[in-house]
Amino acid sequence: VSDPAAIVGFFEFPPLRFSATMPGTSLEQAAELTLRALADAGLGLRDLNGLVCQGLYVTELFKPSTLAEYLGAKIQFGEVPDLGGASAVGMVWRAASAIALGLCDVVVCVVNGGYPPPKPDGEAWNEFGASSYNFGSPQAEFEIPYGHLGQNVPYAFIAQRYGYEHGYDGRAMARLVACQRRNGAVTPHAIHFGQPVTEDDVLASPMIAPPLHLLEIVRPVKGGAALVVASAEAARRCRHPPAYVVGFGEAVTHKSPHYAPDMLWPPLATAARQAFAMAGVGPRDMDAAQIYDCYTIATLLALETAGFAPRGEGQRFIKAHNLGFHGDFPLNTNGGQLGFGQPGGAGGMVHLIEGARQASRRAGDRQVDRCRQVFVSGNGGIMSEQSALILRGDL
Amino acid sequence: VTPAQGHPPRISETSRPWWEALAREQLSLQRCDSCQRFVFYPRIHCPHCGGLSLTWRPHEGSGVLYTWSAAAAPVSPAFAHLKRPILAIVELAPDVRVPTTLVGIDEKDVRIGMALRPVFDHDSYEGVTLLRYRP
C-alpha cells in the first residue's frame, strides 16, 4: 500500500455491566462516539466525509443515511459491514480502501455496542442469536431443531476436536486467561479492572460447555466505540501520531462450524497471510498482537493460523511466552475482551483501538517498548468469518 | 401457558426427501453426478464442484463422532426442558457432518471417533422425524 491511510483518533465508552442501561438512543450514542473520535483526532464534523457503521438499532435499513442526517454530515462513502466480530477490522480496511480510491479522506467507523432494546411486548431480543430461524435458513432446518444454538457449545465443539487431534492442555488455556486478565486489571475502564485471576481460578470456574470454563468465555457488557481513518495527507493535520493501515485481509468460508472446510484451520489463515503479504512483513516482525478472544479456543487457533505458532503448537507457545505488555509476546495488552469486556457488536473494536493506541504510542503505563507494528484480528460467528490488519506506527 | 419445547425444522422442498427418508427410518443423501461427492445439507447444487445435477442415494445410517459438547445451561428457553443435552456433530461420510444429539450414553463415556448408530426420533416434534445417535 503506497501512502496508506491511518487510524488517527478513537473513542470508547467505558464499558458498563450488562444489566445496566446505556443512556440515550443508539442513534445518539453513535453520534456522540463519532464526534468524540473526531475530536480526539483533532478533526471536526466538517472534515468528515465517510461513515462505516454498525448497530444503530433505531432502524433496520438505511443506517448510514440515518446517521449522516442526524449528525449533519455530508458523506461520499457509507457502509454497513455484516461480519459479526470480524466487522471492526472489516470497517477499517473498507474505509482505507475508499480513501485509497479517492472517494473520501476522513472516515469514522462507529459501533454503538450494547444490544437492541426490548420489543414493545417485553420480549427480549431474538432468542436465536446469531442463527436464523427464518424459512429457508439451513440453520432453521438442520441445526436449531436439535438445539444447536448460541455460541458456547459451537466453540466447545472446536475445542473438543482440538483436544482430539492435538491434545488439550487446560492449564495452557488457563494461563492465556490469567495473562490477559493481568493486562486488563491495569487497564482503566476495563470491566475486570483490578480483578486479575490465577490459572487455578480459571480451572475451578464452572464448566459451561466441556471443555470450556466460565472464565474462558467473554463477558458481555454495554459500551461502544468509534475510530477515525484518514488519508496520509489528512493524518498530517491530526493531533496524534498515526497508526498506518499497511496490510489487511478477510476470509469467509462457512456460517456454522459443522460445515467448516477444516474445523481446526479457520479462515484467518487466508486473511492473515494476505495481510502480511500486503504489508511486506511476517508474524515475527510484529511487536504486539491484539487477537480476537471471545473464547480461549478462538485465540489459540488465531495464534496458529496467523503463523505465530505452528499448527498444533499453540498451547506450547502460550506456555513458552510472557504475554504481558512488557513480555516477549505482548498479547491483548488491554486485557482483550476477556479482560475489558465484550461491548456487543463493538467487541472487535476493543482489539483495534488498543492496536492503534500501541502503534501510536498512546498506551501510557502499558505501552509496549519500541512498538512499531501491531497485528490485529477479527473473528465473527463461530470462527467462520475472520479478518486481519497490520498497523504500523511512524517510529 | 406451557412454554414451547424446541423448534421444529422448517422444511424446504429441496430437502424434503431427507425428511421423508427419516420418517421411514432410513437415510438418504444427495450425491453429485459430476464429482461423485456427497452433499450435506441438501442443496440445489454441489458445493464441491458447482454441478447442478444431484441424485439421492440411500445411506445405511451409521456414523462416527466428529465432536461434541454438553450444554450446562439451556441453549435457549425453548430447550430448557432438556437436562444437559449432549450436542454432537456426527460424520456419516466424507463431506457429510450432521448436527445432532447423543442419546443413551453417559457424558463420561463419550469419545470422539466412536462408532454411532442412528436413532429415529418420531416424538420430539409432531409429524417429523429427527436423526439422533447412540453408541
Please characterize this protein's 3D structure.
The complex is a heterodimer of chains A (395) and B (135). Chain A is of the alpha+beta class and 395 residues long. In chain A, 33% of the residues lie in helices and 16% in strands. In chain A, the strands form three sheets. Chain A has a nine-stranded mixed sheet, with helices on both faces. By secondary structure, chain B is mainly beta. The mean pLDDT of chain B is 95. Chains A and B meet through α4, α5 and β6 of A and β4 and β6 of B.
Summarize the structure.
The complex is a heterodimer of chains A (395) and B (135). By secondary structure, chain A is α+β, with helices and mostly antiparallel strands. Chain A has helices at residues 26-41, 63-71, 87-100, 138-142, 152-166, 170-184, 199-204, 232-235, 268-279, 296-305, 314-320, 336-340, 347-359; strands at residues 6-12, 16-17, 50-54, 78-79, 106-111, 207-209, 212-213, 221-222, 225-230, 243-252, 288-290, 373-380, 385-392.
Query: For this entry, what is the oligomeric state of its chains?
Result: heterodimer
Based on CA atoms alone, the radius of gyration of chain A comes out at 20 Å
Side by side, the strands of the main sheet of chain A go 4-3-5-9-1-10-13-12-11
Main sheet characteristics of chain A: 9 strands, mixed
How is the biggest beta sheet of chain B arranged?
A: 5 strands, antiparallel
* Rg estimate of chain B, integer Å: 16 Å
Kindly state the number of beta strands of chain A. 13
Secondary-structure content class of chain A: alpha+beta
Unreliable runs of chain A, pLDDT <50, ≥5 residues? none
Listing every helix as H and every strand as E from the N terminus to the C terminus, the arrangement of chain B reads HEEEEEEEE
Number of helices of chain A: 13
Q: Segments of chain B where pLDDT lies below 50 for 5+ residues?
A: none
| Fraction of residues in H or I helices of chain A | 25-40%
Class by SSE composition of chain B? mainly beta
Taken as a percent bin, the fraction of beta residues of chain B is 35-45%
- Integer average pLDDT of chain A: 96
Distance between the termini of chain A: 18 Å
